[in-house]
Each structure stands twice: as structure tokens, then as C-alpha cells.
Amino acid sequence: MFDDEREEQDYDPEPVYLDTTPVRDDSDDDGLPPLLDEPTDKGDAGKQWYVVHCYSGYENKVRFAIEQRIETMGMRDKIFDVIVPTEEEIEVKDGKRRTVERRVFPGYILVEMKMDEDSWYVVRNTPGVTGFVGMGNDPTPLRPDEVKAIIARMDSTTPTIKVTYKVGQKVRIIDGPFNDFMGLVAAIDPDKSKVRVMVNFFGRDTPVELDFLEVEKV
């Protein structure tokens, strides 16, 4: 029990000041949001590249359609870039070389976006789009190393060479000392861009190693 009558105190106790500054204990993560003085804007957090399937041959039209929907539907803060991966390719036809732009993944385009219900709807319902690449209804983003490899392939200054022949096929040599000779393809080395052709020279088959661009299919 408490006694309501207290003896008079003839001293004046010193005031006690409490430090009310919040202290964060990182060792105990209770799931609460960070303190207000910490930055909460993560910038590009959640931005990833996704592979979108579309009708083959309509990749550029679909890319243009998605870009239009981004602008008209105000999705620039969620959908950032749309690309059709391409690379330069050299092909030899009728003895002439020409450089063409070839789609790396026919029927697919890449979209950089923050995936949520709204951004998914904008891309998925674009005319020509047939779906996202992923497991079931869950789009799977590309890994950073996959994106890096694709971009490096697009930025390469060395065009690839289109090989229209295969082992055992008859070809014509169109350059070098054996120009206009006919022969059979014996081996193809894509890493070195070399082809070995068996040429009948003075009545006997002789292997000749040539560059891809020195041979064309008959």
C-alpha cells in the first residue's frame, strides 16, 4: 500500500535528460522499414531483361508497337528499352560478297522492364506478342552474363560468315591460286573460319585449306 502523506523533501533533485535519438540495431532485423534518414530509392532495382516471343518476321513491327504503347500508356518508368538482337553477316552468292543484318534470335525480342501486373499487361497484349519466355505464367529474366553476351555479340565489329555448304558437298573455289577449281568439302572449322576442300590436281585428290569466303556452293 502507498502512503499519501509524504515527508517534505528539502532538496531539489537534479533533472535527468534522456537521449531520444533512435538507434538502429542491425543485428536484429525485425522486418521494419529503414530509418527515414536512409535513402529508400533504389534506382534501377527490379529492372531486368526479359525475352518476349513474337511472330517470326515481325520482330521490328512488334518492337515499334511496344514502344508506342509505352508512350501512350505512360509506362516509361516501368518499361525502359526494347531491342531486336541482330548481327552483321557476310554471305557469298553468285561469286559476290554482301553484308546483311541478321536477327540473332528469330521470333524473339528483348524487353528491359520492371515486372509487375501493369507492365506485364502492356507488353503481353501488344499485337504480335505471343508470350514471355519462362515457366508457365512466370516470366524468367535473363541472367546478367546472358545479357552481356548478347550485347557483346551485337556490338562486335567482326561480322559472322554465313556458310551455305556442308561436308560432302561440291563447291567452287572463287579466290586464290585455285580459283575456278571444283572440289568436295572434306571438313569445316567454324572457329578458324576455314574449310578443307579436296581438289583434283594432276589426277589426284589434294586437300586445300581455304577461308570460308573463298568457296561457294555449286
- The assigned structural class equals alpha+beta
The total strand number stands at 14
According to CATH, the fold-level topology of the largest domain is Alpha-Beta Plaits
What gyration radius follows from the Cα positions, in whole Å? 34 Å
- The CATH top-level class label of the largest domain: Alpha Beta
**How many domains in all?**
2
- CATH architecture grouping of the largest domain: 2-Layer Sandwich
Mean pLDDT: 81
The biggest sheet, with number of strands, parallel, antiparallel or mixed sense and barrel status, is:
5 strands, antiparallel
Strand order of the largest sheet: 13-12-11-10-14
What shape does the CA trace take?
A: elongated
Low-confidence stretches: 1-42
User: What share of residues is helical?
Assistant: 10-25%
**What order do the helices and strands follow?**
EHEEEEHEEEHEEEEEE
Q: Give me the number of helical elements.
A: 3
Describe this protein with a few key phrases.
218 residues, alpha+beta, SH3 type barrels, 2 domains, 4-stranded antiparallel beta sheet, 16% helix, elongated
Describe what is shown at a glance:
By secondary structure, the protein is of the alpha+beta class. The strands form four sheets. It has a five-stranded antiparallel sheet with strand order 13-12-11-10-14, with no helix packed on it. Strands 2-5-1-6 form a four-stranded antiparallel sheet, with helices on one face. Strands 4-3-9 form a three-stranded mixed sheet.
